[in-house]
Amino acid sequence: MLHVKLCSSQPWYGYNYKASGKLAQVSLGNSLVQVPKRLYQRLSGRRMSLFTQKLATLVLGRETLAKATLTGKGKKGELKEQLEPEKNNAIIDAVRERFPNTEVAEIRALLRRNCNNESYKASSNSSQS
Question: In this protein, which residues make up the domain named BEN (predicted)?
């Protein structure tokens, strides 16, 4: 269930939506994880895969997705930062609320792919510098 809450105004990913001096927030599922209501409403709701990946970027940020994994383990046993389980679960809950027939394993696979994509983008950008 999504809950809307007003929080103190602050920019979020370059956006600053104010409602009488406050930034309207949406809680994901039954968690304490919140995102700006306006940005949440803008997420594409047609395809579960796009919704999941855009929501993950909104909740976690590109930098975090690039340097972390679901388990904290990278390729060939290297250690990486682990994504926050509370945020992962909030994303899973929000996706399953919007797309009820979705399996948790599908969502986790998309989160994994999103981490891999952002990691690849970050490494290719740093090698071009």
Answer: 30-122
